[in-house]
Amino acid sequence: MPKTIPIIIANDKILVKEKDSDKFVTYEPSGIENEPNIPFFHQFAKKISESQYYFKEFMKKLYGKKVNKYVLAIIVPDDTSALEHIFINEFFLHSDACKAVAQITMAQTLSKSHTRYISISRSHRNIVLQYIANGEILAQRLYDTDNYEPSQIIEDAKRIHIDVEYSGVPVFINNFNMNMDDFADLGYVITTKDFLDKIANVHTEKV
Question: What stretch of H or E contains 96?
């Protein structure tokens, strides 16, 4: 089985696990300008060959010249669109910095001990409410980050899927980006450290 490199695409950066430790280092692409409500990786499309080259060079410094024998296990924000999933896959797969790419959302990694749970997270664009069952996203609702009520989102969580209506499931608050203070008392809070510890041991058979 090919070895796995866990990678996290956060709101404003990319984190890559180091080769011989569970620590993550930040990949900082050059020439990226922040745009309101637009994920930073969209700008890779403006200079795609150049962006892929610099990412490959960064990965070679971390994992050596044979980095293209690895599989990238990429953890993406919960509100990543279908087209963004395709772009992310194509960008990394054709960077020549891996053998294959596997993607999973942040919400799908929050608990290994629960087969069913609710996830609440926040990106630059949305508050994301999801129902996860056996690793699959069975229901999702998005809320504008500038116009939401935490109490209403919790009420919506109780009815997000028919399975949830008739049996309680735990609620996990993904505070990886440290922007979930409004929800801190409404579920089990996953801190940045908690999240990194989980992702450090992600393997491709789990994504």
Answer: none
- Rounded CA-CA distance 202/18 in Å is 13
Locate all alpha helices (DSSP H) within the chain, ordered by sequence.
48-63, 82-93, 150-157, 162-165, 192-199
Strand, helix or coil at 126? strand
pTM of structure: 0.90
- For 172, counting Cβ atoms within 10 Å of its Cβ (0-12 exposed, 13-18 middle, 19+ buried), the class is buried
How far apart are alpha carbons 6 and 102 in whole angstroms?
Answer: 10
- CA torsion, ordered 16, 10, 184, 156, to nearest 10 deg: -130
Q: Which two tokens stand for residue 70?
A: 């690895």
- Whether 72 and 92 have beta carbons less than 8 Å apart is answered as yes
- 2-27 confidence digits (pLDDT tens): 689 999 998 888 999 999 899 999 99
> Is 89:103 a contact under the CB 8 Å cutoff?
yes
